[in-house]
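Example record

The entry below shows one chain as it appears in the dataset: sequence first, then structure tokens.
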Amino acid sequence: MFVRLAEGVVRHRRLVLVMTGVVVVVAAVVGSGVFDKLSGGGFEDPAAESSLAEDLLGSGFDAGDPDVVLTVTTDIGTVDDRSVADAGAALVEDLAAEPGVTAVVSYWTLGSPAPLRSQDATRALVLVRAGGSEDETEDVVARLRDNYDDARGPLTVMFGGPEPVGSDIGATIEEDLARAEILAVPVTLILLIVVYGSVVAALLPLAVGVIAVLGTFLSLSVIASVTDVSIFSINLTTALGLGLAIDYSLFVVSRFREELGRGLDPHTAVVRCVETAGRTIAFSALTVAVSLSALLVFPLYFLRSFAYAGVAVVLLAAVTAVVSLPALLAVLGHRVDNLRLWHRSSTPEGSGFWHRVATAVMRRPVPVATSVVALLVLLGLPFVGVTFGLPDDRVLPADAESRRVSDVLREEFDSRESDAFAVVAPELGDSDRREAEIDEYAARLSGLSGVARVDAVTGIYQDGQRLATETPAAGRFASPSGTWFSVVPAVEPVSPDGEALVERIRDTGAPFEVLVAGAAAELVDSKDAIFGRLPLAGGIIAVTTSVLLFMMFGSLLVPAKAIVLNVLSLSATFGAMVWVFQDGHGADLLDFTATGTLVVTIPILMFCIAFGLSMDYEVFLLSRIKEEYDRAGDNNHAVALGLERTGGIVTAAAALLAVTFLAFGITARISFMKLFGFGLALAIVLDATIIRAALVPAFMRIAGAANWWAPAPLRRLHERFGIRENTETPARQGPRASSRERSRDEP
């Protein structure tokens, strides 16, 4: 199949390049608007109890969390002074008159409640809700920030709350992305020139990367027209697009130059290149795409978005590297080495650094394997103490306006009121005891451990007793058919204690159906949604990876070994994530705020991406080992020669991919995207060094000929349906290329 593909590419090389150019232009024009279609949320399960409760609060009671929290500050006295209060009331009146604003309340309009005033009485809060869809709300809040984000008489206004935080995250990501590209592209080009020694050859992987990234922007733009897509997926698109394009192009161009060095003419070298490296790339890309597609099983669109972006960019990078790049190589021929800056001296077969490493490891495989496994387990131990959380304003840099507002709320206001759980009873039924049932249930809630107070339509409750029956805001808890309760916690809400309180509230019997909302409930439901689907996602990755590797290598041991080694490598990466980003070691150096938790979605996301990338290098290495084993039948010689032939190129590819992710980690100002960049860079480095150089040769030496064993029925299945490579070197004459065509395209 790959031979026929290559022959077609060579024969129609100019047509392939023209079609590629058309696709790039269309993708650049249409895909450039993708940022306007992406969303900043996606961390909650829309079908979860907490999500349904939030929807009911908004639709049934016109309650729930405000979209905007404004801190209004005065420097001429206190917020209770007449002139300040009049200016505050005028501000509320102006905000309420804005199109799209559905509700505005403030310290001055609610009877001066203490929770809406700072401890020194110089600040007060204004809470704004906007109606409509997510995009409509975003537009309304953007207009409000433009019109009100300045001094108004004696008042200074700053915008915070969920919508400004989300908007600031989106703007920060877009700026970070531009900075990362400015850093990554020139550094990558310099490294490519170092690897190739030729400017022309070094530019080819960047061209493939641009095509893959722009094509994925187009894909995401289309997908975002029919479903929610997270803006965070853009980071993966750019980093993985550049990285994999460099990986795949590196293998294609290096194999092409290798075949030219053996004396093949350019067109025949292209065919041989696609037949070998192209086949490996296709299966590698399929393995990475399968790992990323497992993210589709999760209901959180933050995770699904990375599947959309990841699968698209992997497949586009692979197709471009196997089709468009060979067409360009067929046109360039020997000119691929133009603008050569230096020549690398070749080493005789059976020598060189990587051959010596493999030979040294295989002389003492058991001690090497034992010590490396122990080291990886030790590095992974901090992950045992992982604590999961949800992203909040602290993922932003400290100078972001919405982050500054949230810091003020935490430091200067009584935050317990804003941390209250909402317990919604949408349908009370027709019972004559409705008021008595509400009273009994509110009293039971107030007596739970971890509850400071419960506010309800029937009064205020504490320690199982009703303290007051007449409250100014009691009416907000009622609707024609239902009611809701405000449960003020005595514990930190987004914490293990807060999660336990959610479970106690849900286990407390009620005479009517109730749904629990709030940040802690959202965290509980998000963890349930993720960990409940985790076995399915893991099963998809393990089974499909095993099948693909078996079809490629005809072995049962190779897939099992690959999965075990990848899990070991990732355990060390996750341990480092906890030690740095959860526990805060190096937080000042890396410039982020440690919150004592990891965003619950990030380890799952990184596992799928890093697992796929690890399999990427595994396939490249094993394909060369299997190629030599099929030729000579000597396991130890095949392992040493396979590592010799791929060690340098895999190291170069890993270094380039790690540099790309490091660039995104260094420039990222969103803390969990910083974790994402640094974590994946570490995973790639560990995999390309410790795993490939030590554990793979050690385990393959220990297994010996059993590496390639399979039961007779499976062996026959592989012989019939498996993918096998023709290891014979093709003739020097190009496929269906006349001497006139060759002379026209070669220098």
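Notes for this example: Residues 408-523 form one domain. The chain has a mean pLDDT of 85.
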